[in-house]
Amino acid sequence: MAADKHPRPTESELEILQVLWERGPSTVREVHEVLARQKETGYTTTLKLMQIMHDKGTLRRDTSARTHIYEASVSREDTQHQLLDRMIHTLFSGSAASLVMQTLGHHRASAGELEKIKDYLQQLERSKK
């Protein structure tokens, strides 16, 4: 299912999605344990958020066992694409170039990252010929 069919996730929902994308299908307890290492949060808060995300269609839930297993129903890539498109449109007046220049101007990219960016730009140039 495409990410644009789902509401834009909140910051807390993105944290849960990040755990599920990295771990794969998990129980609420497992997700909560990962989140609790990063910030103070209650188990019931994690449970409620995951239930809401299930209702929104952002998570799938397997109820065949006593302990429910949740997994992301949206991909990391689709979610990144959705959020990035919105950011470019709202913050940078639709200019991807402005986003890239702002990012590189305020974030120190490693030599490896810069090399990947150069390679990608060269691929784009070759594909337009």
Automatic annotation (TrEMBL):
Pfam families named among the record's database cross-references: Penicillinase_R
Keywords on record: DNA-binding, Transcription, Transcription regulation
Family designation: Belongs to the BlaI transcriptional regulatory family.
Protein name in UniProt: BlaI/MecI/CopY family transcriptional regulator
Organismal lineage: Bacteria, Pseudomonadati, Bacteroidota, Chitinophagia, Chitinophagales
